[in-house]
Amino acid sequence: MIKSGMLAVAFGANQVSLKKGMHKTGRIGQGLEEEKCASKSKSIAAVATISSGNDEFVGNLIAEALEKIGPDGVISIESSSSFEASVIIELGTKIDKGYMSPHFTTNQDKSRVEFDNAKVLVTDQKISTVKEIVPLLEKTTQLSVPLLIIAEDMSRQVLETLVVNKMQGLLNVAVVKCPGFLEGKKALLQDIALMTGQIIVDEEIVVEKTRTCNWQTGYNAMTGRYEDLLSAGVADPCQVSRCALQNAVSIAGVVLITQALLVEKIKKPKPALPHVPGKTP
């Protein structure tokens, strides 16, 4: 941009007019970003249509379902017993595992565990000692909120400790074993983590976990969650391009007007020992 601008100035172009023109380009980038938000639903419908064998009706149906359940929702497609295609929205989720001890029940008549605004720990590892979850237990006690633990397994010692604290009214907690098997188990845990707004505690690093997610989902270091980074405003390609364009226009405009550039001079570090001719390497 600077190179082309300097060439235009050399042929007689006005620097102020060039700067105004570049700023107009920056505003176009902002317009593209706003347009992208409006066309998001159409893009989803277009991708869904291609994925469903160019069936526009099914594509629009999937886009409509995504709009209703939001980016953190889960869509499953099943064969219908009739010739009609329909969308059924279910709140919450169902898993094929129950609580590990009947002492965790909060509704004795219906043998249910019912929590409101609970904190959820999701892990595919075995909890062997109480020490592993002491910080979490202390935090939930301070906040006076229930705690739901979904783990691969739990040692008898840890389970008995939680049951005793539950019966004494010190903790409001329940433990459930991980549902599913093998790779299907990991997918179910990811769905649970997304729906509850938590992250999965496992042995993999953040990079490996991010690779298993779709292209929009990543680790948000600010919230500590895996979420849709586009919706969270963390990584928006159009926004990044717009910011880069506006910054480039601002710098190029200053250079073209002043025909000068101010940079910080890098100081060479002083040697630890004084330089002695003939001795210092």
Automatic annotation (TrEMBL):
GO terms for molecular function: ATP-dependent protein folding chaperone. Coiled coil: none annotated. It comes from the Eukaryota. The keyword Chaperone applies. One of its GO terms (biological process) is protein refolding. InterPro entries: Cpn60/GroEL, GroEL-like_apical_dom_sf, GROEL-like_equatorial_sf, TCP-1-like_intermed_sf. Keywords: Chaperone. Belongs to the chaperonin (HSP60) family. This is Chaperonin 60. It comes from Lithocarpus litseifolius.
